[in-house]
Structure formats: structure tokens, C-alpha cells
Amino acid sequence: NANALSDFFFEYETPRQVLVRNRRVGVVCRLIQLGVLVYIIGWVFIYEKGYQSTDIAVSSVFTKMKGVGYTNVNGVERVWDVSDYVFPPQGDSSFVVMTNYIITEGQQMGTCPEVLLYLLMNSRLSLFQGEMTGVCVNTTNTCEVLAWCPVEDDRIIPSPPLLMSAENYTLFIKNSVTFPIFGVTRSNLVEGIDADYINKCLYHPEDAPLCPIFRLGDIVKLSGFNFETIAQEGGTIGIVIDWTCNFDVAVKHCKPKYNFHGLYGNPSDTGQTRPSLGYNFRYAKHYLENSVQKRTLLKVFGIRFDIIVQSLARKFDIIPTLTAIGSGVGIFGVATVVCDLVLLYLLPKREFYKNMKFKYTDTPIQVRSRQCAK
Asked: Which residues cross the membrane (predicted)?
């Protein structure tokens, strides 16, 4: 109505402080204030570091492998060096180390019988190794294909892995990070990691946690897997370099931490419980022999290493500090709101408290008009 609308526009409410001597309300108020205080100090300032600004690093990673492998398959001896077993060879942050393989040598383009994979119930599955010519080969009971011949037969994976020596290969990681907001650049070759130390150190989570040289067998073990198991058919390991730094202290305390995670699956799983096992790809080396183009085909089973850099730097900043304090002070008002609700609506003497909390004032004209109305 008109009076309510008039009151809304022409009346003003001002806070009135009333000291209420009620133990229950007083205890509720102090408990709420204590909870807010614990939240501000414990969570906002101590845990979340609400008084600091943050920055994420821009990073680069360089890797280098060392080690020599040896195999003797059917009397054929081979020595494998870095250029043979690392893919790609450029030292990227993601690369594959070959641990097992199936080799098919002397392939050349022509026609030959295909290889079939025999399944249960006498059903057969073609491996689609070439273009069908429509000719049947009676000696093998298979179809003839136009392909690189002889075609690859990868039905039997070598066991144990042919390059178990990869367990003793070493990986050197060089990582640098820059925090642009704070203008700080750091490298994993921190203070004390010089050439003499690198030449003799090997990473250990407790004895040498800052050494940038890692033994592949140790990496796989720290990720939760058995090296022979993962080397058999391949897998993936994540190497996480964690830069969590507090620049309120000296920059030299900003150091990397290395963590290793098996991205291959669950270590407790067996081969039968995984729908797609391992990691492999094919790699061909082409050459000419008597003017005929030939190739050596390798089905490579290996461990893929993905080096992941995660970072978070913090430093004191007055703006987030004032913002955190201001929000905390505002939250303190929750105690007043809750206690007012208890006083005005829940306690038996709520009418008494309402009269004490709210006082109505009238202008002289309003007083005379009320008197005349009487």
C-alpha cells in the first residue's frame, strides 16, 4: 500500500548495539567466530598461502641416453647403441627405448603367402599384410598377397626380452624453468651439481635426490613395475619434474623433485585383464642390394618415457594479503547474523529481545498527527 511504499523510501535503519547477557547465544557466537578465525589462519593463510601471488614456469627439457646392448639370436650377434634403440634420436622430452623386437630381414616387393593368426574354434584372422592376388598357396594353405616379402610373422614375442640390458642404460635429463612474473630462472643442475658430481652420481630418492642421471631399471622400479614385465611388450612411464618454490626465502632453495608414474596400467593386472597390452610400433630401414630396393623391418617393443614438468612458485604480495584479510573480516559477520536469528526467532523471550533491538523514532509532525488521530 501507499504507507508501506512511503516507509520504504523515507525511512532509514541504523544499527543499534544491544548487549545481550545470554550464555547460550554468547557461546554460539564465540564458537562461530573461532571457526571463522581457524579457517582464515589455518586454511586461507597457512594451507592456501593466501598472502602470496603465484606463477607457473615456462620450461624446456633435453635428454641424452647412454648404454650399449648386445643380442645373439640364432647365432647372429648384434650390438645396439643409442642410435639403434632410441626413437626419436633428437633428445626430446618424449622418447622410446627399445627393449624387445621382432626382425624381418631382406624384404623386397613381390608376391608371397600371407601369415594367418589362428583363433579358437578353427577360425582364422588375416593380418592384412598386403594386397590379395586371388591365388591360393597350397603349401601353406593361405592366400597370396602382393607385399614386402617375406611377410612379417609377429605371432610369437621373444621371451625373455632380447634387450634386457636396457635395464642398465642411463638417462641424463637437463631441465630449465623460468618464472616470468618473478623474473627467476632455474635449472635442475642446481648449486653443487657440477661436472665432477655428474660424472660419478646416479639418482637415488634418498642418497642422491638431485642427481640428473637415472638408471632405467631404477625408473621402472620406482614407478611400481617390474622391468622384465614391462620390457616384454612395452609400456609407458611418466617422469614428473616438480618445481614447487617459495620465493619468500632464498632462490637457491628452489630445487626440483622427481616422481615416477607407470602409465602402462595397474601393476597388479595380468595380461589377460588388459584389452590392449604394451606399446609397440614398426620401423623399416631401406637399402639397395644389386639395384633392388629392400628393407629390414623391425617391430619394436619399448618403454615410452614422457617427461612432464609441473611448477608453482609463490611470493608475498600485499594485494592478495589485503583481499584475504578483507574476506575474512566479512565472514565474521556470519556470527552476528546467526546470533540475531537465534535471539529474534528461537528463544522464548524473543519478543523482549525484539523490543530491545529495534527502536522506532518519529518526527514531531508524525507525533502530532498520531495525537490528533486519537
From this structure: 25-46, 324-347
